[in-house]
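Re: that chain you flagged

S.,

Sorry for the slow reply, it's been a week of failed gels. I finally had a moment to sit down with the sequence you sent. For the record, here it is as I used it:
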Amino acid sequence: MGEPGAMPTYLLTGVAGFLGSHLAERLVAVGHRVRGVDCLREYYSPALKRLNLEGLLAQPEFEILELDLATADLAPALDGCDGVFHLAAQAGVRYSLTNPHAYVDANLVGFLNILEGCRHAGVEHLVYASSSSVYGANTVSPFSVHHTVDHPVSLYAATKKANELMAHTYSHLYGLPTTGLRFFTVYGPWGRPDMALFLFTRAILAGQPIDVFNHGKMQRDFTYIDDVVEGVVRVLDRAPVPDPAWDAAAADPGTSRAPYRVYNIGGNRPVELLRFIEVLEQALGRTAEKCLLPLQPGDVVSTCADTADLERAVGFSPAVPIEEGIPRFVEWYREFYGESLGG
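Prediction finished late last night. Pasting the structure tokens below so you have them in one place:
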């Protein structure tokens, strides 16, 4: 724990990633000290990840440690930290179909080491990234944190569900306050190159066809990066406490007798993939050549976030529609890549 009256210090894992770099910038801007951790995994270009951090590296309130969470001694990194944002993970539903072992070290062993480190360091609040993918085969919409999530349809989703269970165990056994955030299809500037918006933009500008799964009939609750960061920052100051009304005979998955909570962070406005592409075409001033394909293994047809619990807890729900968010991404993409990737 930090010294009384000192600038708050937060450990932020996955700091060089899409969400991590945005969150670090926000925390530093509001007067916090950020100790970032990243192993710069080659799931996508480490060079792009380093570019994510260019502005931060000049800030005295920011430092980065290159550590692999699955093997590192985290005690020095956690020393003096007031809280932890754990965003590091092996991402990607489709990648988990071909590289399952990568998810065990990064998402299970790495998270266990975070939990152990927080426990021994006396961390006041652990906020960690879960995913809308935990809802899996569930078709009750909108997805609520009070629904059971026992039927994942990808290994990635299973590891995120496991993270929530592991967090609850540490909240129960050791009184460690933990908050899991189920993110719904986050997009925006500096997005990962394997994400649909990035792939579509690159292909359309290069005059190449785009793969549109489930014949474009999928729906996603797209959530703009700035909305996600706002939600995460607000949750920071709401460390969970035990729910005295929790009933073991009718166990509610969204709350607990332990200091444990999970929240959805999503737009609560599902958008059909073809509409998403249409807005992108308008922003680019180009028409996409679409290869309509069946649903891929591990994918779900529709996602929609019930954010009522988040609204009650922190007075916020995402609000940026794709008609604003996609043009912002396109503007960043053109500025960043110019003509180098077909822009």
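What I noticed first: Residues 139 and 266 are 17 Å apart (CA to CA).

Talk soon,
D.
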